[in-house]
Design brief:
This protein is an all-alpha fold. It has a domain at 27-117. Helix content is 72%, strand content 0%. The chain has six helices and no strands. The chain has helices spanning 3-16, 22-25, 28-52, 57-86, 94-112, 132-141. Helix 3 (28-52) packs antiparallel against helix 4 (57-86) and helix 4 (57-86) runs antiparallel to helix 5. The longest helix has 30 residues, at 57-86.
Length: 142
Amino acid sequence: MSMIDVITRVDAICKKYERYDTDKHGDPFSRLYAAVDAGIDAAIEKSARAAKKKKNRAASVTLDADVRRTKARLLEVVVKLQKVAARKVNGLSPEEKVSRAGLVAALPHRIHAIPDSHGGVTPDTGSPRDGPRCRMAQLGAA
């Protein structure tokens, strides 16, 4: 058997089993985590842009709404990420599995920490998102 035949056969075998190569396709957890992390960074940057545009109310409201939509989408992806982190993966040590669970557990806190215009605490009541109607209902119910 010549060297060319050996190389041809090795290439054929490599092509056949290419889909099982984890290095080429990457770990699904790491890809999804990187996407969520990039989304969080983009939302923080949009929130900063919205804070700078206080003079232009329409642009500020549009950016705030976009930040809230991004936060909701990211929270949906965190659920998927929790499922991916819980899967059994060959070659994954128990310590790495625990660290992945810790990374996923920290994501909702990071997402909720992204500032948007309607997520703050009002100074007079101390509770989030209490408007005048909520306070009127509380006074009327008492």
